[in-house]
């Protein structure tokens, strides 16, 4: 779904039948911008041009543009360890809640689904950053935080690259040095 930014707060969905027209207008405006470059003014670098194209062409079909969707984390995701998470509805601020089903644990008690709470950016380019916290209170004293970014892979599928910190509870301050682990997980959408 395409969105028009009406003001700083409001996103208005663009009906499907207006989308093609909008994309055409964007292509025309892009050409005008390029033609309007002033002599002596520095030409945009190749990287800048690419970024511009990907911004303009987000969700526009054809002309080599990929069909990029704005990223919304709502749904089921699975990572490289086999852990799954369900992100419930993402609100208009980007705030969300969910449930994390880890496949691995260093706790003694049996693993249980664990509540997560997070926040994502709502960029139109399908490449938003996000973060969430998982509280393992049902079976562990630890807390994990994840930060990441959504990408559209070459196959057009969404992929989340994340880094995490897992804080274990230790019984004394002298053990603080060994209480935090870090790692990375990659998630793909499974629902
Ligand atoms: C614990 O072991 O105390 C609680 C479970 C921690 C699971 C970790 S969080 C980072 C990594 N990614 C996963 O999907 N699971 C592990």
Topology at a glance:
Blueprint: E1 2-5, E2 11-14, H1 16-35, H2 46-56, E3 75-79, E4 84-87, E5 95-101, E6 114-120, E7 129-135, E8 143-152, E9 158-167, E10 180-189
Antiparallel strand pairs: 1-2, 3-4, 3-10, 4-5, 5-6, 6-7, 7-8, 8-9, 9-10
The structure holds biotin.
Biotin is lined by residues 79, 81, 83, 102, 104-107, 136, 140, 142, 144, 164, 166, 185.
Write structural notes for this entry:
- The chain is α+β, with helices and mostly antiparallel strands.
- It has helices at residues 16-35, 46-56; strands at residues 2-5, 11-14, 75-79, 84-87, 95-101, 114-120, 129-135, 143-152, 158-167, 180-189.
- The strands form two sheets. The protein has an eight-stranded antiparallel beta barrel with strand order 3-4-5-6-7-8-9-10. A two-stranded antiparallel sheet has the order 1-2.
- A hairpin with a 5-residue loop joins strand 1 (2-5) and strand 2 (11-14).
- It is elongated, with a radius of gyration of 21 Å.
- Residues 1-65 have low confidence and may be disordered.
- Bound molecules: biotin.
- The site of biotin has 15 residues, from strand 9.
Major beta sheet, specifics?
8 strands, antiparallel, barrel
- Global outline: elongated
Bound molecules: biotin
Distance between the termini: 18 Å
β content, as a range?
35-45%
Instruction: Spell out the helices and strands N to C.
Output: EEHHEEEEEEEE
Q: Report the structural category.
A: alpha+beta
Count of beta strands? 10
Mean pLDDT: 77
Number of helices: 2
Cα Rg: 21 Å
Oligomer: single chain
Low-confidence stretches at least 5 residues in length (pLDDT < 50)? 1-65
Helix content: 10-25%
Strand order of the largest sheet: 3-4-5-6-7-8-9-10
Protein name: Avidin
Subunit structure: Homotetramer.
InterPro entries: Avidin (IPR005469), Avidin-like_sf (IPR036896), Avidin/str (IPR005468), Avidin/Streptavidin-rel (IPR051764)
GO molecular function: biotin binding
